[in-house]
Amino acid sequence: MNQTNHLSVEELRDIVQDAHLNFLLGAGASADLFAPLGAVEDWLTYLTQIGDIPATTLNRVRASVYAYFFEGVIDPNTSVINETVVADPILETYRGFLRTLNTLLVRRRSSILDKQVNIFTTNVDLATEVAAEELQLELNDGFSGRYLPIFSASNFGTVKSRRSLQYDNLAEVPTFNLFKLHGSTSWAARKIDLGEETKEVITFNPSTEVFDAIRGTLQTAKDALYEVDKKTKIDKLTRDADEPTPSEEAVLGAFMAEYERLAIVNPTKDKFGLTVLNQNYYDLLRIFSNTLEKENSVLFVIGFSCRDEHIRELIIRAARTNPTLQIIVFAYHPDEVQALKDRLNADLAANGNILVLSTPKKAKKADQETYTLSSITKTFFEPLLPKAPRKPDSVVDVRLKLTEPLELDDDQH
Questions:
Q1: Residue 14: other Cβ atoms inside 10 A
Q2: pLDDT, tens only, 298-316
Q3: Which SS3 state, helix, strand or coil, does residue 252 take?
Q4: Which residues, other chains included, contact 307 with Cβ-Cβ below 8 Å and sequence gap of 6+?
Q5: Of 76, 107, 214, 228, which one is least surrounded by beta carbons within 10 A?
Q6: For the ranges 138-142, 188-192, 304-308, 402-406, which has the lowest average pLDDT?
Q7: Average pLDDT, whole number, for the chain?
């Protein structure tokens, strides 16, 4: 595959029809509602590396960053769960994405490949789940059980079929496997009694109860927190910070205690260490790695900056060891193409199987088009859908008249 900024409809059609389909969605894919927050990961990593300020002061700064992260990434899920008008743009984006892929799976010409799509995501929002529920698509998110749904990586990989009631025909149902590499706001850690031992499991909790509790403690701690935005210089903020009073320390601690109830991997450089400690997160990364090693696979990367070094290394290693793997990365903006290539070592890929795509560069900033999940769906995947039958240019009216057949006399035989 040539490393150019072009991919024809015919090339993409062959890939989609004949390869195992995998997607990696990053924060940019959900930017319709969850705006990228800048260098949160770098900030939190910096705070783990300095030790020349009092712990209480450090905790104050850390709580301020988590408050910023909660308000920008976690709390907006309330709108998604309740399907309010605010969430309409992001839900419509995911509905279009899932609907298009589902149609492509139904019309897939290969009888060898499963009608499945693997969606790996670092996002913790619920847009994919809610959109799939609205469309009544088959979504496997790793949970099983009705009364108490429990997460297990062993629940993935199931092929589902449907048997017709009338003719007893068996047909595979298109399935979306959703792997949330960093956890989800709908996950909750819970201890269950197994008789002789107690085991901690991940259960499904789609309510806003945890959000409401965090929001309440955050409101109480507002005066003890520092203002944080994209332009914040974390080193300056840390130098200028002062120790909280005992009452401030108490409300900050209450906020962090509620926040830590979330079963997510927080954006820090040491998150891989946390992932290894939790078997569920580790299993998801292992599945991601093994999936990329599968012969004749494709990975579409959308809205992912490739700054996450642990996921990035898995992609680079797979590109080197699996020559049949194709990696197609969509750059949000043309200016990001080279940075993405550098992070993935795309120009040095021995198998030449990493392609970075972007929109054409425009002279005026206002005219510049970008690749969002919505525009990628419309530009690349919708053209692959079967076209509606074309209306005839003209209609010919043919009229037939039936008459009684002629009967011959005996003398005429």
A1: 11
A2: 999 999 988 888 899 999 9
A3: helix
A4: 41, 343
A5: 107
A6: 402-406
A7: 86
